Amino acid sequence: MNARLYFALWPDDATRQQLSQYCPQLTREANGQALFPLTLHMTLAYLGDVDMKLLPVFEQIANGLEAQPFDYTANIAGCFPKARVAWLGTKDVPGELVTLQKNLRTLLAAAHLDQDQRAFRPYLTVARDVATPFADKPIAPVEWHIDHFCLVATRSGVVGPESDVLKTWPLKS
Q1: What's the pTM value of the predicted model, to 2 decimals?
Q2: How far apart are CA 135 and CA 114, in angstroms?
Q3: Which of 170, 173, 172 is nearest to 12 (CA)?
């Protein structure tokens, strides 16, 4: 059995609630399709359509990842016109986030499992199928203490993609 897998940062409920307050407004402004607030996340590494028999390999990679907890401030909203998504992000990407993602990609590459070669752009997608992209703009800051990462599976649902967190690992200080 195959599934689309990715490693991600998954906000806690309080942070998710704060971030999701922007979803309706940005979706309307961009004339896009809203995503479920429960699926708000930041992708660290997209693994692609993967045979679930490889799940233990991804778990072993995650077990070997060393990274410290850190704080992230979502303070800007924007669109990627080519990808047709609206997003929340930050003006100042924490060095710890860059290191976390780089170390994960290094471990995946060593196992010949790094499928996504695009440059890392840390953001949370709030809407898809954007018809009217808007320019980057500031938002009231949302503080997010990041102390774990997840392996997530996405499947087709009745009204769009649905995500299931398969396993979570703590970031260790």
Answers
A1: 0.93
A2: 32
A3: 170
Dump pLDDT digits (tens) for 67-126: 999 999 999 999 999 999 999 999 999 999 999 999 999 999 999 987 777 889 999 999
The total of structural domains in the chain comes to 1
Residue 55: pLDDT band (50, 70, 90) is very high
Q: How many CA atoms, within 13 angstroms, populate the side-chain half-sphere of residue 5?
A: 23
Q: What is the 3-state secondary structure (H, E, C) of the chain?
A: CEEEEEEEECCCHHHHHHHHCCHHHHHHHHCCEECCHHHCCEEEEEEEEEEHHHHHHHHHHHHCCCCCCEEEEEEEEEEECCCCEEEEECCCCCHHHHHHHHHHHHHHHHCCCCCCCCCCCCCEEEEECCCCCCCCEEEEEEEEEECEEEEEEEEECCCCEEEEEEEEEECCC
Residue with tokens 């769009």: 160
- Contacts (Cβ under 8 Å, ≥6 apart) of 62: 7, 149, 151, 167, 169
